[in-house]
Design goal:
The complex is a heterotrimer of chains A (about 375), B (about 220) and C (about 220). Chain B is mainly alpha-helical and about 220 residues long. Chain B is about 80% helix and about 0% strand. Chain B has helices at about 5-10, 15-45, 50-65, 65-75, 85-110, 110-120, 125-160, 170-175, 180-205. Classes of the chains: A alpha/beta (about 375), B mainly alpha (about 220), C mainly alpha (about 220).
């Protein structure tokens, strides 16, 4: 756990402090994202935790121990540190770069070699191919991975990451973010993560700390921040599409309805009467193996021009054969499916079987219910 | 030891003037000839990397040769012999390295994007050279000129050993006759001149930097 | 000038070996001292506490370097007397600048990101200097040492003027006595020695450049 209490950084000759009486707690095993426009003091805050910058006032403790009690070099050896520019030593191979901190800890050689390979694998790099290369021979994304691997070399419980994925193209960044989140589920580090990108903050953070002009403006989970922006500054920083952003926090399983009308192949002829009996707006057509292969809506069936014979209905249903999502699909992706297949409803699958249904209305209702909380 | 510089200066004013004049005619002709030969060659070399590497290696090698050696080697060439021709040729050969290298570097180091943009606007390569590469490379080229002038002034003194009657002669004769005043006077005059030239040219060097490139504040 | 084969042989086999050894001695001592003084000075002048003296120090060394080599050597005589020692001191003056300048340039060129990352991992100042900054700056420092060495070989020929001996003796003797054989041997060996040092140090420079940096 990292605790900052009334931490201030005042540079001489500056009218305002770079960080102004900041109090913040980062719980164990969580990612806390510091986010804000440039010059808001987020990087300064991060760099005060490992004393790359000395605070002017206040206290910073890690698991109850003040960072000021420790020799700065020794303190930093125990904290993983990743920066946007990565800063790999250009004259050292990848293996040597990763081995820097283990070497400072005077680990035996074999242990270092083993650990380097382990980390390379963990980062999705081939040790055989990567180990003895120099940084200049790697791509941007690979260098970022090596930067993260290097920071994790001695398995420090705490990592400080300053725009760690900032120097790569958007596709590689999404990739690195996803991989890192997956990794974090296993390693459960306490991480302070700095970014200027609110989308990255929402995606990466268990908690988000929004900074403005050296002050903490709002601190909370991504959902809290998106639902109840503390003030106009936060609202503007999040952007006009904050509700769309909020969708990224939810998966289909939170919004769908489990009750659903199913039509076996032999029932398709009297679809309408079954739907009326079950008071259903929509009915899913199953094949002989109970797999859903499309759906019909009550509105369609009540229209005069709709063909009533089983064959015609089968064809109509099959037009929506791809309008299905998984329970774990994020809501924005479910929306995409609806728009792509021009479907008012999507079927929700779990392990390949029909689990429920979700309409556009369900999404809207879910988001607004959360909004009102 | 009797060191009386003022007295020495007063008694030898005419000789000092004569030596200084000789020194400068030698330096001036060497620098002018060097500029006329090496600057165009330096510009030409920017067109061919292969030849640039070859010529630069040659210039570098010549530059390594101790000046006393180079003067001595010139003298043994029958067509040159003792005197001004040998001195001039040696000095011009020395100037090859700073001039060619700085002209080449100055022109070559102009930001590729700027040249790319100029090409994209339809400028011919001659125009790019005149309007972009030369002005932007001028500070580096001028630095080469400054090095050449200061260096030539210093090395020219050594030509006294191959018969030039210039400021090096005080040192040479002072050493032979163990005349301390003469040695110090000779060394001082030539040092002051070299430092003065270096300082003045250093001042001008700052002025030839294009306005947009000067550091702000 | 008529040349005699006999005198040429005397010059090459009897006079030259001693002259070459003396010359080498002067060069090696001067360059070694220059490195011992210049590299630490360059390191010091890039440390935050002493950085403000950097410009002053470089300006002084720059002015010293504008002084013609012949004048420096000549001035050593009335101040320090005759012999190898005065010659070494005189040569030392001007061999400092290239090494100090390149040490400073080399150290300043090490990217701030790399130093930041090294500090962030818990390397102390000494480790950062020895393991990060110096190896990365070394090619540039060596190039300064090369410039200095070539300078000392070259101006070292003038050391003969104040009785230090070396290859300059043969050249000046040859000029004074009109013996082209001595002249050619002395001048030729001087040129060869200088070019040899230049090439050897260039090669070392290439070898010492870390492969990861060379790739760029």
């Amino acid at each position: 756990m990292i605790e900052l209490k009334n931490v201030t950084k005042q540079y001489p000759g500056q009218p305002h402090p770079a960080v102004d009486s900041l109090t913040l707690t980062v719980p164990e095993g969580e990612i806390c994202v510091l986010v804000g426009p440039s010059g808001c003091g987020k990087s300064t805050t991060l760099r005060m935790i490992n004393r790359m910058i000395e605070p002017s006032a206040g206290s910073i403790t890690i698991n109850g121990q003040s960072v000021m009690n420790n020799d700065p070099d020794h303190l930093r050896m125990g904290i993983g540190y990743v920066i946007q520019q990565i800063g790999l030593l250009p004259h050292r191979t990848i293996a040597e770069n990763i081995a820097i901190v283990p070497r400072l800890y005077k680990w035996p050689k074999e242990k270092i070699v083993r650990r380097v390979d382990e980390l390379l694998v963990m980062m999705g790099l081939d040790p055989e191919k990567t180990r003895s290369k120099y940084p200049s021979q790697l791509s941007g994304g690979q260098m970022q991975r090596v930067g993260v691997a290097r920071a994790m070399a001695v398995d420090p419980p705490i990592m400080l990451m300053d725009e760690p994925f900032g120097a790569v193209d958007p596709i590689a960044r999404t990739h690195l973010q996803d991989e890192f989140l997956r990794l974090q589920k296993e390693i459960r580090k306490t991480i302070v993560f700095v970014t200027h990108d609110i989308n990255e903050a929402i995606k990466m953070g268990d908690k988000i700390a929004i900074f403005g002009e050296g002050k903490l403006v709002q601190f909370g989970t991504p959902e809290e921040v998106l639902t109840n922006p503390a003030n106009e500054f936060v609202e503007n920083f999040i952007g006009y599409d904050r509700i769309v952003k909020k969708l990224f926090l939810y998966q289909v399983q939170e919004a769908y309805r489990p009750a659903v009308c199913r039509l076996r192949p032999e029932e398709i002829g009297n679809a309408l009467s079954k739907m009326l009996a079950e008071k259903a707006e929509v009915a899913f057509v199953l094949n002989e193996a109970d797999k859903p292969c499309g759906y019909l809506t009550r509105e369609e069936l009540e229209q005069e021009e709709t063909a009533r014979d089983a064959d015609g209905l089968q064809k109509l249903a099959a037009r929506r054969s791809k309008a299905f999502v998984q329970t774990t699909t994020p809501l924005p992706d479910a929306l995409s499916v609806m728009l792509e297949y021009d479907a008012e409803y999507v079927g929700v699958l779990k392990n390949g079987l029909l689990e429920g249904v979700m309409s556009f209305k369900d999404i809207r209702r879910h988001v607004y219910r959360r909004e009102g909380e | 030891m009797d060191i009386n510089l003022v007295d020495f200066f007063q008694r030898n004013t005419r000789t000092i003037m004569e030596y200084t004049e000789n020194h400068f005619t030698l330096v001036l002709s060497a620098v002018v000839i060097s500029l006329l030969i090496w600057v165009p060659i330096g510009l030409l070399l920017t067109k061919s990397d292969k030849w640039a590497a070859r010529i630069m290696a040659l210039a570098n090698t010549i530059f390594c040769i101790p000046s006393l050696s180079l003067f001595a080697i010139m003298v043994t060439i029958p067509a040159l012999g003792l005197g001004r021709k040998s001195a001039l040729l040696a000095l011009v050969l020395y100037a090859m390295m700073p001039l060619i290298r700085n002209v080449y570097d100055g022109v070559k180091n102009v930001d590729r994007n700027v040249i790319e943009a100029a090409k994209g606007m339809g400028m011919s390569s001659g125009r790019i050279m005149r309007e972009i590469q030369l002005p932007l490379g001028l500070p580096v080229i001028f630095a080469g000129f400054r090095i050449t002038v200061v260096m030539t002034t210093g090395i020219a003194a050594i030509a006294t050993y191959i018969g030039e009657r210039n400021l090096g002669r005080f040192i040479q004769e002072g050493l032979v006759r163990s005349n301390t005043s003469m040695i110090i006077m000779g060394a001082l005059i030539i040092s002051v001149i070299a430092i003065a030239l270096d300082t003045i040219l250093g001042g001008i060097e700052k002025l030839v930097i294009p306005k947009g490139l000067r550091a702000r504040r | 000038m008529k040349m005699s084969w006999e005198r040429f042989q005397i010059a090459l086999f009897e006079k030259a070996p001693e002259a070459v050894l003396t010359h080498l001695l002067i060069v090696v001592i001067t360059v070694a001292l220059a490195i011992l003084i210049s590299v630490p000075l360059g390191v010091l002048l890039t440390r935050p506490r002493y950085r403000k003296f950097g410009v002053v120090a470089l300006n002084i060394l720059n002015i010293l370097n504008a002084i013609p080599g012949m004048a420096v050597i000549a001035l050593a005589l009335p101040i320090l007397g005759l012999g190898i020692k005065p010659a070494v001191v005189a040569l030392l003056f001007q061999s400092l600048l290239p090494i100090v300048r390149n040490t400073i340039a080399g150290l300043l060129e090490v990217s701030a990101d790399v130093k930041e990352a090294a500090a962030g991992m818990g390397m102390n100042q000494r480790q950062i200097l020895l393991e990060v900054e110096m190896p990365l700056a070394m090619p540039i420092i060596l190039s300064g040492i090369r410039t200095s060495t070539v300078y000392v070989v070259s101006v070292g020929t003038l050391a003969a003027l104040i009785g230090a001996g070396g290859l300059g003796n043969m050249i000046i003797g040859g000029l004074a006595l009109f013996m082209p054989e001595y002249l050619i041997v002395g001048a030729g060996l001087g040129a060869i020695m200088s070019i040899f040092f230049d090439r050897a140090l260039s090669y070392l420079e290439y070898k010492i450049t870390p492969p990861g940096v060379r790739a760029n």
